[in-house]
């Protein structure tokens, strides 16, 4: 995916649900991750809706979805990638520019 022009809003992040996901993941320290159920709970989204939006973010390489097992129980972890964190920072900078602030 090519980077957006300066001042242009990233269409991958711009969708309301994906913006909420990205903003929530951006609050985690670099390298941290969150379980799928916890993210679902924080965002009050259905599993299907969350999965659909995570897939778009994953396709853009903005999030990493890691499926592991704890014993016999599958656990899905979600993390913001370095590219995703950068894209979110660029998005917020572009938004500030559009609103008349400084970038």
TrEMBL record:
CDD domains: HTH_ARSR. It comes from the Bacteria. The keyword ATP-binding does not apply. Coiled coil: none annotated. Keywords: DNA-binding. Residues 23-99 form the Winged helix DNA-binding domain. InterPro entries: ArsR-like_HTH, WH-like_DNA-bd_sf, WH_DNA-bd_dom, WH_DNA-bd_sf. The keyword DNA-binding applies. One of its GO terms (molecular function) is DNA binding. Pfam families: HTH_34 (PF13601). The lineage of its organism: Bacteria, Bacillati, Actinomycetota, Actinomycetes, Micrococcales. This is Winged helix DNA-binding domain-containing protein.
């Amino acid at each position: 995916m090519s980077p957006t022009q300066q001042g242009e809003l990233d269409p991958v992040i711009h969708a309301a649900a994906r913006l909420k996901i990205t903003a929530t993941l951006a609050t985690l320290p670099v390298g941290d991750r969150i379980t799928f159920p916890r993210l679902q709970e924080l965002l009050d989204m259905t599993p299907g809706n969350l999965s659909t939006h995570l897939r778009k973010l994953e396709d853009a390489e903005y999030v990493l979805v890691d499926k592991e097992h704890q014993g016999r129980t599958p656990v899905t972890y979600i993390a913001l990638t370095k590219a995703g964190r950068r894209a979110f920072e660029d998005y917020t900078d572009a938004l500030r520019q559009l609103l008349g602030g400084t970038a």
